[in-house]
C-alpha cells in the first residue's frame, strides 16, 4: 500500500533520532498498557471476588467460570445479551436499508431541494442525545412502545439517520456514474439500477455503515436506561448498570462484576479483531469526506 | 454549521481524490428516471428522520417553555425555566464542567493525537499500534468506570505498584475531588486513539512529493510539519473539532459509572449538562421537572451550535489545492 | 491496511460468539421465573401490577415472591411483578407521567413521599387499615402500630396513610462489642459527645480508626449531623424547608456542624474513606478494620456473610440524641391505579404473621409488627423502636433539596474540604437559591 512504501522510503532516508526513539518507546508502553488492561479485565472475570481485592495481580489459578453463570442467571445477562443483539442488529439493518436509497438519491441529484435535505440531515449530527430523551420517552409511552424492543429499535433508527445518511452519501458520491448510464441504456429502471448495479458495488460502504451503527447501538446507554426497565426488555448496558448496583447491595462480587463487563466487552473485541481495519477506515476516512 | 463542513470538505475531497468530475448530464432518460426515483428513495428516510428526530427536538423546545411534572397539566413559564437554570448554581457548575471537558479535554486530546500521529508515522508495525490505541473508543465507557473502581482503589493494583516503586502515599484517585480529573483522563485516553486514527488517515492522503519538495528547500522536520502536514490536513482537523464538540457535550455513562453507586446519583460536582438533564427528568425520589430538563438540554444544543459556528470561523482556511 | 485479519483473531471472534450464543440460549430457557407467580389456579380474581424496589435475588424479593405465589393460589388474583430494584425511585415518576405506572410499588417512605405522595400522586390507603388480615383475624390497624403512620409527613389532602409498611428500621452506630480494642476503649456507652470523642481517641491511640465511612455517601454520613441536630433540639425538616435560610444562623446548627467537624478533623475516620466506593469501607468495618459504623439497621444483613463468628453486635446513638429515627419501607398505590382492591388485598395478606416473618427470618430485618421478633442481632435495635413516638430519619426531609442543596455541600464538609462555618454559610445560600428556583 502507498502508506507503507511511503514510510519505508522515509525510514531509509533518515535513521530515527534519539527523541523519536524515546517517543516510540513511550507509545509502545502505552500500547502494552492498553493490552494489559484488556487482558487484566478478561483474567479478573475468572477470579474469586475476595481474591481480587487481596491480590489484584493474581492469575486465575482455578478459573471460576461460575462468575459467568452467575451473571447470566442472577444478573439476567443472558436475556439482556439477546436483547442487545436483537436491538443492535435490527436497528442497524433498518438504518442502512432506509438510509441507503436516500443517500443514493442525495448523492446523485444535486439541486436546491437535495442540498437543503442533505443539510437538514447533517444538522442532526450536531444534536446531542439528551435533547431528544424526554420527548422520545413521552412519545414512545403515548404509542405504547416504551419498555419494548420495537420502541428501542425505532429510537435507535431515528438517532442513526443523520450519520448513516451522511456516511453513505459520501460512499455513493464516490461511485462512478458510468455504471448507471450503462444500465439505463440497457433499459433498467431506477429501482432496478439501484438494487442490481449500485448496491453490489457499494456493498463495502453498506457493511461499514452497518458496523458503525451496530457498535453505537450496542454501547448506547442513556436511551436504554430511560426507555427500558423490565428484566426481559433491558439491553446489556442497563443490565450491567443494574448488576453493579445490585452487587453493591448484596456484598460486592468483583469476579462476577467483571464477568458482566466481559459480556459487554467481548463482542467488541471479537468484532474488532475480525473487522478492525474496516471499522477504523469507516470511522476515520468517512469522517474526512 | 456542521453542514458547511461536510459540504465543502466533500467537494475538496472529491477534487483531491481525483475521482471523475461530473460527466455532462446529457443522458435524458437517466435524468428523467432519476427525478422520479428521488422522492421515492428519500421519503422513507426523511419521514423517519422527521418523526423520530426533528419532531422530538421541536417538542423539547416547546416543553422547555412550561413547568411540567409529566402527570398534571402543563403550566406556561415562558423563558422562566432558562432564568431558573441560570440562577441554579448546580446548573452553572454542570455547564462549567461541560465546557471544561470540551476545551481542556479537547486540547489535550488533540495535542496527544497529533503527537501520536507524528510518532506512529515513523514507527514499525504502526498499524498494529494504531489498532490497539483505537480500540477503547469502541467500548462502553461504563467498562472503564468499573475497571477504574478496582484499579485505582487505595489498595488496588495502581497504588500497590506505586508503593512498590517507593511512593509511600500515592494519590487517592477515586476521591470525589479527583473525580473530574479521572473522568477527563479516561475520556482523553479513549478519544485520543480515535482522533489519532483520523489524523493518520488524513496525513496518509498527503502526496509524498510535497515532503520531498520541502526537504529539497531545506525544511527541517518541524518546518515540514508546519508548512506541509498542518495545512494539508486542516480540513480534517476542523471536522474533528466539530465532531469533538458534539461528542463531548453528550458524555453520560462515564460520569454515571464513575460517580454513582447503589442507586444514588453521582455527586453534583461531577455533573455535566447531560447528567443534569437526566437527573431533572428522572430524579430519585422527587418530582420530574420536564420543563427544566428540556430547557437544560436546549442549552447544550445551543452550546454545540455556538461552538460549531465559532470553530468554523476560527478554523476557516482556503482549501489547499495541489 | 488490515494488520489483524490473521487466523488467530478470527478464531477468537468465532469462539466468543459461540460462547455468547450458548450463554444466551441457556439462559433464555431457564428464565421466566418472574411470571411463575401467576401460574396455576383457575380462580379468576383479577390481577394487579407491582414494581418492586428489590431485585430478584435479594432476600426480601424471595420473601415477597413466596407470598405472591401463595396469594395467587389462595385468591386467584394474579400479580404481575417486576423486580425493578432501587431504580424504581427514578422510574416511578416518569412512568406515572407516561401513564405506564403499575398499580402498586414499594420503597422507603421518604422515597414514596418525595416521588409521589407530596404531590398527591399516591392513593390514600386508609381502607387497608380497616381490613382484616387473613389467618390472623386481626385488623391491619391493630397489627401495625399507628405511630408509624403518625410520624409520616402529610400529603396535599392531609393524609398520612399513603404507605402500608412491612419493614421498619432505624439507624445508628453499630460496632462489634467483642472487638477487644473497642471494649477496652469503651467500658460503657458514652453519655456525652466528649466521652465519645475520648473513645475515638483511645481507639486512635491503638491505631484503630474510630469510624468506618463510605465517603461518597451523603445519606449515612449525614445521619451524624441529623442526630446531632436532634441532640441540639433542631428539627432538620424545618431547617431545610426554611425559604429564608435563617434557620442556619441558629447557634445550635453551627454547634452540630462543629461536632461533625471534630470527627473529620480529628483523624478518626478510616484514612481511605474519601477514595473508595460503597461498600468498600463497610467491608473493612466488618473485617475489624474500624470501630464504629453509622448506618441503617439493614447493614447487619448486608455484612452477614463477612463478619467472623465471634462478632457480637453493639448498637448506640450518637450521645445526646434522645430518640432513634425511624424509616419504614412499604407498599403504595399510584394515583391512577386501576386494580385497587386486588392490590389492597395483597397488602393485608402480606402482613400475616407467618408471611411477614420472612422479612425477619430470611431477610434479616425488622418488621413493624411487634409480635414478630427481630433477628437476634437486631433485638436491641427493635427495642428502641418501641418508643411511643417516632422521629423520621432527617425529620422527613425529602425531594430535590437533597440532591441540589445537601449532597455536595455535606460531602465537601465530610471530606474536610470546608470547615463548619463555611459549611453552614454555603448551605444557607444554596438553600435560599434552591427555594427561589422552586417557585
Could you characterize the architecture of this molecule?
The complex is a heterotrimer of chains A (289), B (322) and C (439). Chain A is an all-alpha fold. Chain A has helices spanning 2-13, 18-44, 49-54, 66-73, 77-108, 112-124, 130-142, 149-173, 178-185, 190-201, 203-219, 222-227, 236-249, 254-288. Chain A starts with a helix and ends with a helix. The model of chain B is unreliable at 1-26 (pLDDT under 50). Chain C is an alpha/beta fold and 439 residues long. In chain C, helix 2 (59-75) links the parallel strand 1 and strand 2 (78-83). Chains in contact: A-B, A-C, B-C.
Structural class of chain C: alpha/beta
Question: How much helix is in the residues of chain C?
Answer: 40-55%
The greatest interface between two protein chains, and residues involved on each side, is: A-B, 121 and 117 residues
Computed Rg of chain B: 24 Å
DSSP helix count of chain C? Answer: 19
Order of neighbouring strands in the sheet with most strands of chain B: 1-2
Shape of chain B: globular
Radius of gyration of chain C using CA atoms only: 24 Å
Strand-residue proportion of chain B = under 5%
For the record, give the distance between the C-alpha atoms at the N and C termini of chain C, rounded to a whole number.
61 Å
Q: Characterize the main sheet of chain C.
A: 6 strands, mixed
Uncertain segments of chain C are 1-12, 20-42
Quick rundown:
The complex is a heterotrimer of chains A (289), B (322) and C (439). With 289 residues, chain A is mainly alpha-helical. In chain A, 79% of the residues lie in helices and 0% in strands.
Keywords:
heterotrimer, A: mainly alpha, globular, disordered N terminus, C: 439 residues, 19 helices
SSE topology:
The complex is a heterotrimer of chains A (289), B (322) and C (439).
Chain A: H1 2-13, H2 18-44, H3 49-54, H4 66-73, H5 77-108, H6 112-124, H7 130-142, H8 149-173, H9 178-185, H10 190-201, H11 203-219, H12 222-227, H13 236-249, H14 254-288
Chain B: H1 2-17, H2 28-63, E1 66-67, E2 75-76, H3 80-87, H4 89-121, H5 126-134, H6 141-151, H7 157-164, H8 179-204, H9 208-216, H10 221-232, H11 234-249, H12 253-259, H13 273-281, H14 290-315
Chain C: H1 7-30, E1 47-52, H2 59-75, E2 78-83, H3 88-97, E3 104-108, H4 109-115, H5 126-130, E4 132-133, E5 138-139, H6 140-143, H7 147-150, E6 164-169, E7 171-176, H8 180-185, H9 193-205, E8 211-212, H10 218-231, H11 236-241, H12 251-265, H13 280-286, E9 292-296, H14 299-302, E10 313-316, E11 325-333, H15 340-350, H16 353-361, H17 379-384, E12 391-392, H18 400-414, H19 420-438
Helix pairs in contact in C: 2-16, 10-12, 10-18, 12-19, 18-19
